[in-house]
């Protein structure tokens, strides 16, 4: 995707054998900045502090973190240390664990002198594959938006509600939930996006709105609690969100608040779609509710907000009653029964074990 006319991915190799550059998402939407990672610990910190976020982007960063580790020391000991450290950075997104395991498989049985080159090659493959996967997700999801448009009267736009950020900033490029929207807009469909602010970190208001605005897609930021009202009023034609981990039965873990949107959609007969790459499916979990680990983050993300003042300064202020405790579960799990369909790089399927296995028959047995 483009920023001010220049194409960017969220992550790319820097100069030399030990350098990776990422877009610093904590600076958006007020400032576009990049950060250079030189050690695997830098990659771990970038993931943990949400300099990078979004399951596919986290996985790509972890893969490059393994490259940085090998550039420092190509020993088995370093492999295990870096793998353990990177996997512990954030617990919910399964892409993180998948990417580290892919890197281990690519280098573990190679002579030490060959490991670094093999690691860079595999990390590049992971990134290129993610771009193509997201493009395919977009193409399959586009058909759902076209179907919604066909049901509208002449001159009526298609209203889509999304939660958190599942655009190109959450991936390497294109995005998952936003890819179909970009394709619909580029094809000339009249689409409008309701952007949930997505408290407490405001990834919708800050990142999704930043992306959509940059691409010229009409959108409106709304408070998280407005979604149910909009659906009751007939102002939402479909919902589409991403996921950080999908269980084998179709349960999906996504940013906190997704479950409530799915409940409201179900009550108002609004289709609720979840877009995901195969790397987000955790085939080891028969179900997601009560089984997917939910990350607990600092309560300060709830009690404080960062924004830009009238004179252009970036400030963090407290918005809560002093002395009050704050809980901050970062994700919730939406049961498969509330999901209309899953949109993957292989097509659209029911949110069920059979639906997923029909798309991924190699997983049977």
TrEMBL record:
Swiss-Prot/TrEMBL site (Transition state stabilizer) positions: 164
Annotated InterPro entries: IF-2B-related, IF-M1Pi, IF_2B-like_C, Initiation_fac_2B_a/b/d, M1Pi_N, NagB/RpiA_transferase-like
Binding of substrate, residues: 53-55, 90, 203, 254-255
Gene Ontology molecular function: any one: S-methyl-5-thioribose-1-phosphate isomerase activity
Catalytic function, reaction form: 5-deoxy-alpha-D-ribose 1-phosphate = 5-deoxy-D-ribulose 1-phosphate; 5-(methylsulfanyl)-alpha-D-ribose 1-phosphate = 5-(methylsulfanyl)-D-ribulose 1-phosphate
Pfam families in alphabetical order: IF-2B
Family (UniProt): Belongs to the EIF-2B alpha/beta/delta subunits family. MtnA subfamily.
Record-given protein name: Methylthioribose-1-phosphate isomerase
Naturally occurring in which organism (per UniProt): Futiania mangrovi
Gene: mtnA
């Amino acid at each position: 995707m483009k920023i001010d006319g220049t194409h960017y991915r969220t992550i790319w190799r820097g100069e030399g054998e030990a350098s990776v550059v990422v877009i610093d998402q904590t600076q958006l939407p007020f400032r576009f900045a990049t950060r250079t990672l030189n050690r695997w610990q830098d990659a771990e910190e970038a993931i943990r502090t949400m300099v990078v976020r979004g399951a596919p982007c986290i996985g790509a960063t972890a893969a490059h973190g393994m490259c940085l580790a090998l550039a420092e020391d190509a020993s088995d000991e370093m492999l295990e240390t870096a793998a353990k450290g990177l996997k512990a950075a954030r617990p919910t997104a399964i892409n993180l664990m998948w990417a580290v395991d892919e890197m281990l498989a690519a280098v573990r049985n190679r002579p030490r002198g060959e490991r670094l080159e093999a690691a860079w090659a595999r990390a590049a493959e992971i990134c290129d594959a993610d771009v193509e996967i997201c493009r395919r997700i977009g193409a399959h999801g586009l058909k759902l938006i076209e179907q919604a448009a066909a049901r509208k009267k002449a001159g009526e736009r298609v209203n889509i509600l999304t939660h958190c950020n599942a655009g190109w900033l959450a991936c390497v490029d294109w995005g998952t939930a936003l890819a179909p929207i970009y394709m619909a807009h580029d094809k000339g469909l009249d689409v409008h996006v309701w952007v949930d602010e997505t408290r407490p970190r405001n990834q919708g208001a800050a990142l999704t709105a930043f992306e959509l605005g940059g691409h010229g897609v009409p959108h409106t930021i709304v408070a998280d609690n407005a979604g149910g009202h909009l659906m009751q009023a007939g102002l939402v034609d479909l919902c589409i969100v991403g996921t950080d981990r999908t269980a084998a039965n179709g349960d999906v873990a996504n940013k906190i608040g997704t479950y409530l949107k799915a409940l409201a959609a179900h009550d108002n007969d609004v289709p609720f779609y979840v877009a995901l790459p195969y790397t987000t499916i955790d085939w080891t979990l028969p179900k997601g509710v009560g089984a997917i680990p939910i990350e607990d983050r600092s309560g300060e993300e709830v009690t404080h907000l960062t924004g830009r003042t009238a004179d252009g300064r970036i400030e963090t202020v407290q918005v809560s009653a002093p002395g009050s405790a704050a809980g901050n579960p970062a994700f919730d799990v939406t049961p498969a029964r509330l999901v209309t369909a899953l949109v993957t790089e292989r097509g659209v399927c029911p949110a069920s074990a059979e639906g997923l296995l029909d798309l991924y028959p190699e997983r049977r047995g």
